[in-house]
Design goal:
Elements (H helix, E strand, L loop, with lengths): L1 H14 E2 L9 E5 L5 E6 L4 E9 L2 E8 L15 E9 L3 E8 L32 E4 L6 E6 L2 E3 L5 E3 L1 E6 L5 E10 L2 E8 L1 E5 L14 H4 L1 E2 L5 E3 L10 E7 L13 E7 L6 E4 L2 E4 L8 E7 L6 E8 L13 E3 L1
Parallel strand pairs: 7-16
Antiparallel strand pairs: 1-8, 2-3, 2-15, 3-4, 4-5, 5-6, 6-7, 8-9, 9-12, 10-11, 12-13, 13-14, 17-18, 18-22, 19-21, 19-23, 20-22, 23-24
Length: about 325
């Protein structure tokens, strides 16, 4: 009986290992989707690069790093991680950036969200394992297989391991990865098949392509207009007070960081009255909530109060998209 128990333990140990967890290479160049996307990650030097072919003539290029080159002296971008996104297409080129600090909006991004969205941002492992991973040894002659200790069900009824990853046998080179995720209001199983181009210090040429004038010509994605409430409903002769503030400090341009905002109703201008006609913010009061009072004078369908912004770096901000719906 004792011999049988020892043999059983030995067999189990040959098939299951619960100690070291799987880890994506910390310095790697790879694609996850058949070369549509090229990703360069360098955890050691805290920098990453991504090139996404959106269509035949539309390409996004993104960088994220600490101490991004060509930042303006004394700016927040010299002190924090910055993600810079360039869009190149046949019609026009554009660019924008996000600073990972206490005012980060994290409205968009092309890199893994688990790297962070504020001043704690750090370039980490490409994958984020949410469960303890179990190593199934000898699952294949050519692959090492890891799976989560939990299962998940997709909307079509199938049950899978919540996360799975395969490596080339006895290496840290990943082959494919699957996870069950919530996407567009449905629960699905997503699979990534990896093409690994290199493991080790990536060539610097990917990071040499950063435009030297990016801090002058690119839009600061943290700049915007915030409201509370973010929409209002008014009866005739009824008024509502809306708090307005800026989510991040405006830029100082030629020594001036003043931002002036006024509003134009998209429709039925004569049916509404609002005061004051404009609000003024700067680096000292950008988070102070000022009051915009809107009154409906007559019956009309809903409209949008469109802000028009100037100064403080807002000339590059699409303020028209930061409207206030009035029902």
């Amino acid at each position: 009986m004792k011999l049988f128990a020892c043999l059983l333990i030995l067999i189990v140990r040959q098939h299951f290992v619960h100690t070291t967890q799987p880890y994506f290479p910390e310095q790697v160049i790879f694609s996850r989707d058949g070369n549509k996307t090229l990703i360069v990650i360098d955890e050691v030097y805290q920098r990453a690069y991504l090139k996404l072919n959106v269509s035949g003539d539309d390409t996004d290029i993104a960088y994220v790093m600490r101490h991004i080159p060509y930042s303006k002296s004394g700016s927040a971008q010299t002190k924090h991680y910055v993600q810079l996104i360039l869009n190149e297409n046949s019609r026009n080129n554009g660019c924008s950036y996000l600073t990972y600090w206490e005012y980060s909006s994290n409205r968009y991004g092309l890199f893994p969200f688990h790297w962070g969205n504020d001043s704690s941002y750090r370039i980490k492992n490409y994958l984020n394992f949410n469960y303890p991973m179990i190593h199934l040894m000898n699952a294949s002659a050519n692959e090492d297989y890891w799976y989560s200790n939990k299962t998940c069900r997709v909307d079509t009824g199938e049950v899978y391991r919540c996360q799975e990853i395969y490596f080339q046998k006895n290496t840290d080179i990943p082959i494919r990865y699957s996870e069950v995720i919530r996407d567009d209001r449905q629960t699905i199983r997503r699979i990534e098949n990896y093409t690994i181009y290199s493991v080790g210090i990536p060539t610097y040429r990917y990071f040499k392509s950063i435009p030297q004038n990016w801090s002058d010509v690119c839009r600061d994605g943290d700049l915007g207009v915030s409201y509370h409430p973010d929409e209002i409903t008014l009866k005739i002769k009824e008024s509502a007070k809306v708090e307005v503030w800026l989510p991040a400090p405006p830029h100082k341009i030629d020594g001036n960081d003043t931002v002036v905002i006024y509003w134009r109703p998209l429709l039925y201008k004569e049916y509404f009255e609002w005061t004051p006609k404009q609000l003024v913010f700067d680096g000292t009061n950008f988070q102070k909530r000022q009051i915009l009072t809107i009154t409906r004078l007559a019956d009309a369908e809903e409209t949008l109060f469109i802000p028009v912004c100037s100064g403080g770096g807002y000339d590059k901000v699409p303020c028209f998209a930061m409207y206030l719906p009035v029902h």
